[in-house]
Amino acid sequence: MPKEEVIDRTTGFLKKNLETIPPKKRFEYLNRKLRGIVQYAYRHSIAMKSKMDSVGLKPKDIQTIEDLEKLPITKKTDLMELQKKNPPFGGFEGASIRGLRRIYVSPGPLYEPGEIEYDELGWVQGMYAAGFRPGDIAINTFSYHMVPFAMQMLDNSLFKIGCITIPTGIGNTEQQVNILKNLKVNAFCGTPSFLLNIAEKAEEMGLDPKKDLNLRVGFVAAEMVPESLRSELEERFGMMIRQGYGTADIRCLGYECMEKNGMHIPDDKIVEIVDPETGKQLDPGKTGEIVATTFNKVYPLIRFGTGDLSILTETPCPCGRTSPRLLKILGRIDQATKVRGLFVHPEQVNEVASKHAQIGNYQVVITRKEHKDEMTFRIELKEEVPQPEKLKEEIERSIRDVMKVRGEVQFVLKGSIPEGAKKIEDQRTWD
Ligand SMILES: [Zn+2]
Q1: CA 122 to ligand 1 centroid distance, Å
Q2: Cα three-residue angle 148-154-158, rounded to 5 degrees
Q3: What share of the chain has pLDDT > 70, as a percent?
Q4: Does residue 2 carry a pLDDT above 80?
Q5: C-alpha of residue 416 to centroid of ligand 1, in Å
Q6: Is 130 exposed, middle or buried (0-12, 13-18, 19+ CB in 10 A)?
Q7: How far is C-alpha 328 from the chain's CA centre?
Q8: pLDDT tens across 94-142, in order?
Q9: Ligand 1: distance of its center to the CA of 142 in Å?
Q10: What's the CA gap between 221 and 190, in Å, rounded?
Q11: Cα(377) to centroid of ligand 1, in Å?
């Protein structure tokens, strides 16, 4: 194993040519891959063929990412329904079940055709960008049972980078601490909250996570890591933590680089941000549903609706990767509300509130006046402030920054907002 001091974890690329390709060339590359998978899926996946037939599309009608708009979005509930009608995979599989190495089971239950050979790029790119390097000893604390994430996706990705994996799975925190210590483990895969458990358990056992353990890098997923928790964990262990995002069906859809300014879309996926009501693609900067297309021939999901909301940016990233980025995951679409044609989510309301220490209870109320939506941010202040007008302006600026919609701040008396009130109260009537 190389000496620790000489490992460069902060620069470099897994696939430089692909990751730094000029954006226009990337579109051409992705369009080419798209045409290939559409043709393949039409021929080999019964469900994808009938989806295209239902709207009168032939493979030649989908030449570019823009053409994807013509194709209906497939949702998780569609997968479940079709699996019942046409078990086990609803006809979405693009390969014979006899050729599969594994079948995975996700909550639902949803049966997923596993791999013939693991060929996905996304998680490997993500771990490399997170600073994982050949020779690292990694614990993988995600569950190895039934679901594909730990065993199929991360285990294979660690192997592809050249890391040594300890398949610990979830739980047994005390034993995990001993493993970290005895095997000088320097890389962690798991949820941020489990890493926090490990820190607490280690301290309980009389260990200093920074001095007595060797963790240097962490790749977290399955729950978004709040910045406060990330810096606390990085400080406590003396390590770097980066996160990834994906789903069981379509695998990795985003990963952070050193810049921590959103999640790069891996080079083996197409991600659209769409209006979930119309399926139309939205411009960068607009909030919409993450809809993804994979080039995985075993399970060729084309236009899969994740149900998650995000915003895309194409602003160049200082790391040198030219792929667009998802600016954090804002939550589920079924909790979102549309205001003047734009989606707002309770998580965004919380984010605005977290930026101003003076805010106590708060609630957003949506009303409609003269056929126009109005958004009011009702706020109970913790205590009186010297310049309420100035604070009001500042909060209104945060609303525009975070929620991308103009809203008015209204300070209300303490106790006006009921305990347990909805974060977004929609009072519009449509008669
Ligand atoms: Zn970057």
Answers
A1: 14
A2: 150
A3: 98
A4: no
A5: 44
A6: buried
A7: 7
A8: 999 999 999 999 887 899 999 999 999 999 999 999 999 999 999 999 9
A9: 25
A10: 6
A11: 34
